[in-house]
Design a protein that fits this description.
Layout lengths: L14 H14 L12 H8 L3 H13 L3 E4 L3 E4 L18 E2 L5 E2 L2 E2 L12 H14 L14 H15 L8 E4 L2 H12 L4 E6 L3 H9 L3 E8 L2 E2 L1 H7 L3 E4 L13 H14 L2 E5 L15 H4 L5 E6 L11 E4 L5 H11 L5 H12 L2 H27 L4 E4 L6 E6 L5 H10 L2 E2 L1 E2 L12 E5 L5 H14 L4
Parallel strand pairs: 5-16, 7-8, 7-10, 10-11, 11-12
Antiparallel strand pairs: 1-2, 3-4, 6-13, 8-9, 12-13, 14-15, 15-18, 17-18
Helix pairs in contact: 1-3, 2-3, 4-12, 5-12, 6-7, 6-11, 13-15
Protein name: GntR family transcriptional regulator/MocR family aminotransferase
InterPro entries: Aminotransferase_I/II_large, HTH_trans_reg/aminotransferase, PyrdxlP-dep_Trfase, PyrdxlP-dep_Trfase_major, Tscrpt_reg_HTH_GntR, WH-like_DNA-bd_sf, WH_DNA-bd_sf
Family: In the C-terminal section; belongs to the class-I pyridoxal-phosphate-dependent aminotransferase family.
């Protein structure tokens, strides 16, 4: 071990005693584990600029007390097992959750954005990772493109045109590690005192990114068709952030007429629109509506997408498509920050898409989410009845429920957690006041049986009759 004890030479405590205390403390805490080899007396003395006699006195005392042992021709080794230490304040064991069949289970977590690991194509992904290492081995040995690897950007261009009608070229795409990072980059690219029109309610993390960059946030209310245009025309923001294909968090879908009206307004006022199409791949009912970017003829839309919701959150690959007027400044900014996504992951994803595995995965997930959606809607209606109202169920792997009980938001969450279920509020999506108890139930990361059991336990926890 290459240890570095910090010795206080001004202390009245002798240096050898400070060394003894250091070794004992680290053994008690488990940082120096039984069997680890300690530095030699000569090496430690030279490193700490102290005499070898000082180190020898410390080691002799540790040997005498049984903290270390000496092995001939091998050296000194820690001989203290920290697991035998009786901790004064042991952490209480968490009680298992009992379900209605009497068996024990972990917490059922209705978090939006988790992935059901039993359906992840691990074998196909592993195969494409290995293939990409062979195929792109030379490129991995030099810095990648600051905008993102051209192989992946080209495939994203083709995929988005086919699936969402997005019109762009590969050089308009910037790859980034998250939507939050790309929004941060966009604030530098635009580099003005922006007035940002933001959906009310809207995605809180994105709103906080703008606030962190000292942008003025203008809450824009919604109606059944989407963003209210009278509020837009009254405030005339420089930039508008929206989630038109599955409004976050309410789940509404902006109508085609409202989309066209918004685009005309943006062109007339030289404003930009950020279209965050965070889960545009998953629509459960109704006719497909093209992306806002696909309808844009005046280059006013900045398009955001991610592989976190549709594939794997830990892959950390998102992308931004910029109008051509912003490309020169964007290239300058991205050159400063460099690329934040590993080239290995980019090449592996490109291989995965190129070989058709991505489309297979999406088809499986769409089928799975339709089935899970049916199960959760039936369970909510059966168990929770008229005590709740369901909405936002037409797109994405999530539903919202308004809970008609005289309980606070936190009381609903805590009661559910006491029964082994985690649900999430939407109140943090509002910049202004919020009057209803609305819970978000994401079903992408829970099994079909967990969905049924979780809704049953919500009934019990909220004491619904």
């Amino acid at each position: 071990m290459d240890l570095t004890p910090f010795l206080n030479r001004d202390s009245k405590i002798p240096l050898y005693q400070q060394l003894i205390k250091f070794f004992k403390s680290n053994m008690h805490d488990g940082r120096i584990k039984k069997g680890m080899k300690l530095p030699s007396k000569r090496h430690l003395a030279k490193k700490l600029l102290i005499s070898q006699t000082t180190v020898e006195r410390a080691y002799d005392q540790l040997l005498a007390e049984g903290y270390i042992l000496s092995k001939p021709r091998s050296g000194l080794f820690a001989d203290y097992d920290e697991s035998f230490l009786i901790h004064p304040d042991p952490k209480p064991a968490e009680l298992p959750v009992q379900n209605f069949n009497g068996t024990t289970n972990e917490i059922i977590d209705f978090h939006y954005g988790h992935v059901d690991s039993s359906f992840f194509p691990l074998s196909a992904w592993r195969k494409n990772v290995v293939a990409s290492l062979d195929k792109y081995s030379e490129k991995l040995c030099r810095p990648g493109d600051v905008l993102g690897e051209i192989e992946l950007r080209t495939l994203i261009t083709e995929y988005l045109y086919q699936s969402r009608g997005v019109n762009c070229e590969p050089n308009q795409i910037i790859i980034g590690s998250s939507t939050s990072y790309l929004l941060q980059m966009l604030c530098h690219i635009l580099n003005t005192s922006l007035k940002v029109g933001f959906e009310e309610p809207g995605y809180p993390r994105s709103r906080e990114i703008f606030e962190l960059n000292r942008k003025e946030i203008i809450p824009l209310p919604l109606d059944s068709e989407g963003l209210k245009m009278d509020a837009v025309k009254k405030n005339i923001p420089d930039l508008i952030y929206i989630t038109p294909s599955h409004q976050y968090p309410l789940g509404r879908i902006m109508t085609i007429n409202r989309r066209l009206e918004l685009l005309k307004w943006a062109a007339d006022n030289h404003s930009f629109i950020i279209e965050d199409d965070y889960d545009g791949e998953f629509r459960h009912s109704g006719q497909p509506i093209p992306s806002l970017q696909a309808l844009d003829k005046e280059n006013r839309v900045i398009y955001l997408g991610t592989f976190s919701n549709s594939f794997l959150p830990t892959l950390r690959i998102s992308y931004m498509i910029l109008p051509r007027s912003l490309l020169k400044k964007a290239t300058q900014i991205t050159s400063l920050f460099k690329q934040t996504v590993s080239s290995i992951n980019q090449f592996a994803l490109a291989e995965f898409i190129q070989n058709g595995e991505w489309q297979k995965h999406l088809n499986r997930m769409r089928k799975l989410y339709r089935k899970k959606r049916k199960i959760i809607l039936e369970a909510v209606k059966r168990e929770l009845g008229d005590k709740v109202k369901i909405h936002g169920e037409n797109s994405g792997p999530r539903i919202l429920i308004d809970v008609y009980l005289e309980l606070s938001e936190q009381e609903l969450i805590q009661k559910a957690e006491n029964h082994g279920v985690k649900v999430y509020p939407v109140s943090d999506s509002y910049k202004k006041g919020y009057a209803f108890n609305t819970m978000s139930l994401g079903f992408s990361g829970v099994s079909e049986e967990e969905i049924k059991r979780g809704i049953y336990l919500l009934n019990k926890s909220w004491d619904l009759k």
